[in-house]
Amino acid sequence: xxxxxxxxxVHRGHQLMILTLVLHARTQKIPAIVFTFDPHPIHxxxxxxxxxxxxTIEQRAEVLQGLGVDCVIAYPTDRAxxxxxxxxxxxxxxxxxxxxxxxxxxxxxxFGKNRAGDVTLLGQLCDQAxxxxxVVEPTVCGSRMISSSEVRKSIQExxxxxxxxMLGRLYQITGTVGHGAERGRMLGFPTANLxxxxxxxxxxxxxxxxxxxAGKQYPAAIHIGGNPTFQQDETKxxxxxxxxxxxxxxQILQVQFLDRLRGTQTFADTDxxxxxxLIDVESAKKLASQWIDLQ
Length: 295
Ligand SMILES: Cc1cc2nc3c(=O)[nH]c(=O)nc-3n(C[C@H](O)[C@H](O)[C@H](O)COP(=O)(O)O)c2cc1C
Ligand SMILES: Nc1ncnc2c1ncn2[C@@H]1O[C@H](COP(=O)(O)OP(=O)(O)O)[C@@H](O)[C@H]1O
Hints:
Catalyzes the phosphorylation of riboflavin to FMN followed by the adenylation of FMN to FAD. The protein is of the alpha+beta class. The chain folds into two domains: 2-145, Rossmann fold, CATH 3.40.50; 171-294, Elongation Factor Tu (Ef-tu), domain 3 (Beta Barrel), CATH 2.40.30. Helices cover 35% and strands 26% of the residues. Helix 7 runs antiparallel to helix 8 (160-167). Bound molecules: flavin mononucleotide and adenosine-5'-diphosphate.
């Protein structure tokens, strides 16, 4: 049983589709297979329009497997694949290579050259080939239809609550701890500066969340943006881990976002910034400790 798609974020709409895929695969005693593209075809067709992703391919595969998927195929997208007509794609990839017995898709699935194939055509092709076919209805969140682009929009607006509701889990980013101005420690709040972040960075501002390093979780106060108080414009992602005091330069740090507390401000002096940081850290500690205790 096969589902094809990008599955960026593996949001609640994707999750319903995957659970349907797994259910039908188990019923028919065949493997549940996700066929995804790496990179997303947009990187070849219109790279200037490629949005930052919500997840790396590795993270996507891990979450999909957690939902019961037996095999995730990350197809190294190339021109030859993108040039196949919808009928050729169906025959060559689904029938010949994957030997699919059935398909589960969402209503907005398009395939083949110029996205010419839709679910109506896919249904006909499956019928002709004697294959099972199911379209899963989209999932809504309030009045919004859940999609990867809606999740991206919420994160870019700093609306972490809405993103969490659509994802069905906390949004997270991962990076390597790099060097900064070594000012954080002078303020009494050392901040690990995340570099090499491969996924979408939320809107500028101050957040509370959970930092995970070497498999251990800590409440975290996170600042995304410049340091206008010190006349520095360059955007940084800075993570203060609460109740932690180790040198972690060069290590991998993962951050999950719980809520946005405020926007970045320009403070009159260092003392004013420090007073606000105390308040931020207290709020972050309260919220994130509760979250960690619930896990
Ligand atoms: C929770 C938190 C909130 C912050 N808010 C602001 C802010 O509103 N304005 C600002 O100029 N800097 C803010 N900062 C950034 C500090 O100025 C920054 O951490 C400090 O300059 C240390 O930089 P460094 O890591 O390069 O040493 C904040 C940092 C944290 C941890
Ligand atoms: N509680 C903590 N949260 C984050 N980093 C910490 C913490 N305690 C110690 N560190 C270490 O201190 C560094 C951050 O200190 P900071 O003075 O802000 O330096 P930099 O400007 O180089 O980031 C981190 O990279 C990490 O190695």
